[in-house]
Amino acid sequence: MKRSRRSTIAPFMVMEVLEAANARAAAGADVLHLELGEPGEGTPPSALAAARRALDEAFMGYTEAFGLPDLRRRIARHYRETYGVEVDPRRILVTVGASGAFVLGFLAAFDAGDRVALAEPGYPAYRNILRALDIEVVRLDVGFAEGFQPTVESLERALPLDGLVLASPANPTGSMLTPARLEALRRFCTETGIRIVSDEIYHGITYGTPARTLAADADALVVNSFSKYFCMTGWRLGWMVVPEDLLESVARLAQNLFIAPPTIAQHAALGAFRDRALLDRRVEAYRRNRDRLLAALREGGVTRVAPPEGAFYLYADVGDLTDDSPAFCRALLEETGIAATPGLDFDPAHGHRYVRFSFAAAEEVVAEACRRLVPWLRARADRGADPSAGVS
Q1: Neighbour count for residue 165 (Cβ, 10 Å)
Q2: pLDDT tens digits, 306-318
Q3: Among 275, 299, 321, where does a domain finish?
Q4: Among 81, 212, 382, 383, which lies 20 to 30 A Cα-Cα from 183?
Q5: Pseudo-torsion of CA 35, 132, 237, 186, nearest 10°?
Q6: Same structural domain for residues 172 and 59?
């Protein structure tokens, strides 16, 4: 029988790493999870309390396709309080995770055959969702010289373009655009008719200058999520700020593809806003994890790491130790119990020499991973860069 060409996209490699890690754990061995972009401390208590209260008091039927009006108003208030930006709640669409927002946004903004640019290394689902929709992915090859972020010059070389996916802070690198660079990209896209899709799901998790939103841009699609800063990954809830010219299109798509976002998760999200002080303390724990893991990598001889200005990842160049990052990560898991993600998940061209470490886990998990990582890296360097060296 026929299988669609659209379905033949690349796997999401981090989930394969998780499967291998879980198999190791099922066999009785320990695992330190540094592969997942998942906060280790779990759902904040006010979100859990709100969910329990809603189960007793609220009707668990469909909400409006755009989500609970109270939640949309609370998200609008979040933009006012956090960024000083006024967003009309009617432009806020609550979605089934940020993933649902990307599907809806890409469908509403782009046609099959359109050209959409994105930085690589970058989140693989951007590339794979676009390809599944028959949208041409235009790769912007960025690295240390560009701060792992797009530049106006890279866009000029890639023209003509219909869209640009931006992420600041970015996955897997944690890099951020300065306000001046973000404004230059925004202005260039406005002048050339390029629609920006701004992935802002790591906003709130920064270690210096706060992130800037593009929610005030009349043409940008802005995506955010309750998964990362709000620590609600399994609740599968995100949101999107929709430009006026796409509201009707997005509404029809949302009604037909998803009907409505999950009701219980929306009630929980309303509660999560009450735990901002707790969530900010968790960001400080991520900062300590970042510094601890950076020091361990350096002590182990890995010194080229993307600038970790936000999010909770270190994207490390291990090219002196391997030219096969999947084999490197398999050996790391088998010999130390540390699960990490091969760079090929994020960059098919250069990811063979990179590994992403997540430091979102609890502090004691990251501390133990660092204790194991340093001697393993040193021994690896002593054995040479053979990707199969030391696999038992």
Answers
A1: 27
A2: 999 999 999 999 9
A3: 275
A4: 81
A5: 90
A6: yes
Contact 166, 201 (CB under 8 A): no
pLDDT at 390: 42
pLDDT for residue 16: 81
Sign of CA dihedral 379, 384, 386, 389: negative
Contact 154, 142 (CB under 8 A): yes
In whole angstroms, what is the distance from residue 93 CA to residue 71 CA?
Answer: 10
The answer to whether 349 touches 16, Cβ cutoff 8 Å, is no
Nearest to 289 by CA among 314, 307, 271: 314
Q: How far is CA 157 from CA 19, 117, 163, in A?
A: 40, 11, 14
- Please tell me the distance from the alpha carbon of residue 171 to that of residue 121, in angstroms, as a whole number: 8
**Cα distance between residue 329 and residue 357, in whole Å:** 10
Find where tokens 């200058």 sit.
Answer: 209
Contacting residues for 27 by C-beta, under 8 A, at least 6 apart? none
Q: What single DSSP character describes residue 152?
A: H
For 180, the enclosing helix (H) or strand (E) is: helix 179-192
Tell whether the torsion through CA atoms of 379, 382, 388 and 390 is positive or negative. Answer: negative
State how beta strands 238-241 and 221-225 pair: antiparallel
Instruction: Output the pTM of the full model.
Output: 0.93
* Residue 391 pLDDT > 70: no
Query: Which run of H or E residues covers position 124?
Result: helix 124-132
Structural tokens at position 312 = 């909770």
User: What's the CATH code of the domain at 35?
Assistant: 3.40.640.10
